[in-house]
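Pasting as-is:
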Amino acid sequence: MGARVGLEELLAAFEWVSAGEAAAIDCDAYVSKVTGRVHWSGEGVDEELPEDIEDGSIYVAVPHKSEFGLGRSLALRFVEDRLPHSYETVHQYFHKRGAYSRFKTLLERAGQLEAWHSYEQNAIVEALHEWSKGHGLTLVRLPNDVGG
């Protein structure tokens, strides 16, 4: 069993890393394979990273959402399952800019936006579990974790 990493902290780090690209700033996070502690880096973070942060045998960078393929393909799987009559429409959305905005508007009109958020969150948690296992980490729900 590898170092234990709190689910909520890893989710927060994952969101931090994924949001950085959209904000055009560097947002990084690393997990210690030894302690399970998450180290944060980026604008507005006061934490000093460990000197050996680049040592892949000790630390692993928290992935960006694009590394999990949870964008377009996940949205299309959801639509295929929940709104099959809208599949072609949504498929076409993803050939142009602003696809997610149009996708979420369609979901809202169909009363499926909350279901989408739950579906997406479950897919992220599942991907983070697999990612953690692949790096010898154990993803756990800690007493102070909420939701997830």
